[in-house]
Amino acid sequence: MTDRDLAARIADHVHGFLRDLNERGMRVPVPKQRIFLQAIEAVGPRDTARLYWIGQATLTTSRDDLEVYVPTFERWFGEVAAAPVREREPTDDEVPAPRGKGRDGSLTAALGGSAGLAASPSEREGRPALGTASEDDRTILALLRRELPGAAPTIRSRRRRPARRGPWIDIAAICRESRRGHGEIVTLRRRNRPWRQRRVLLLIDVSGSMKRHSADYLRFAHVVVRRLDRAEAFTFGTRLTRVTEALRARDVDAAVGSLGGIVLDAEGGTRIGASLQEFLGNARYVTMARDALVIVLSDGLERGDCRPMEAAARRLSLLSHRLLWWSPLACDPAYRPVTRGMSAVLGSVDALAGVRDLRTAYEQVRTLAKR
Fold first, then answer.
1. Upper half-sphere CA count for residue 250 (Cβ side, 13 Å)
2. What whole-number distance in Å separates Cα of residue 204 and Cα of residue 241?
3. What is this structure's pTM?
4. Contact 230, 171 (CB under 8 A)
């Protein structure tokens, strides 16, 4: 792998890493973020140790910053042994070798570690371990169950039904009544096309970079499938999996727990474009997206060529009523969709919003209800 390829891989994860720094109290303004990216492109780090020193030199300004930077870096890229404060940039002989998940010194090994916070191309089998919903989670789930039916967009039914008012005269009903009244027409019956809920389609990223958010996303999907008349849910990491039927179980923990036997690519690699193309390549699935509210829950950290992801988002936008992209990264006010994947699909998305847990999902549902 060339230095340029390695820098491109790191750039896919940088916004999530910087967001984590901000959440932990280390403010990283946009100018510092820009310098960090420029340094990565200029130096081309060959391993996590060199990346560590680039970040320390460009992002930290005090020992307090280091107390946040060191554990956050290790959380994303693997542990780095002996990372003291340095007054100068270390030479090649002085660069400490990483240990633990990144023992071989390569960024690939570090990104493939158990932290699962960075997108990777690995296609290993993984089953989600999602745990149980807390009391706070169940409270928000109850609020979602109450709000969702009124927030879902509606559409006119294709079938005409008897109504008190409507543009169509119900000839059959009038004839039936006239026979009972000896040919007299007493009431002019009408038909109308009633309103009904649009289909809602959820596409949920369960890759390693979304490990911290997958459980809440799937609990949200459980409420959507249970409460809405026409809802579908899929997960994707390196493959596409339909999970609608599993989420129909009454209890949220039982429904989400059953996904361990169905979703086999959890906490692994990321192939957003390939997964969306697989969805669009299935004629049955395509009908689920037609005139539907489509919500993609993903950080948008695509691997490799972003053209399939861009093409899939464009087609989904044309098929659907609205295409929404909910990303945990967008919860950060400093977030800008400048990664290759997100910048490519931004023109096809009707709205990009920040959703990282059930509470922020509830806020977005309430926003939908106001439209």
1. 0
2. 10
3. 0.63
4. no
